[in-house]
Amino acid sequence: MVIKEVTVLNATGLHARPASMFVQTAGKFKSKIFVIKEENSINAKSIMGIMAGGISQGTTVQIKAEGEDEAAAVDALVELINNKFGE
Prior knowledge:
4 strands, 4-stranded antiparallel sheet, single chain, Histidine-containing Protein, Chain: A, HPr, globular, alpha+beta, 3 helices
C-alpha cells in the first residue's frame, strides 16, 4: 500500500474537467485507488464519487493505492494534482 498527501491547488478543485482527468488517469491502473478526505474514502475511479467529494481548492487529501502498480498510480495522480491539471 502506498499513501501520499497532496493539496489541491487548481481553482475549481476536483470538479468537472479536472475530475474527469483524475478518474481517467486512475482508470489506467490495475490497483485499487482511493482519495481520502477527512474520514471519507472515495473510489478514485468513480466520477460521481470524486465530484460529490467536495474537494475544492486548498483541500488536502491523501491518495491511497493498493495493488501491483500502486506506486506508479499514486505518483501519477499526485503529479496531476501538483500540475494543477494543466491549467
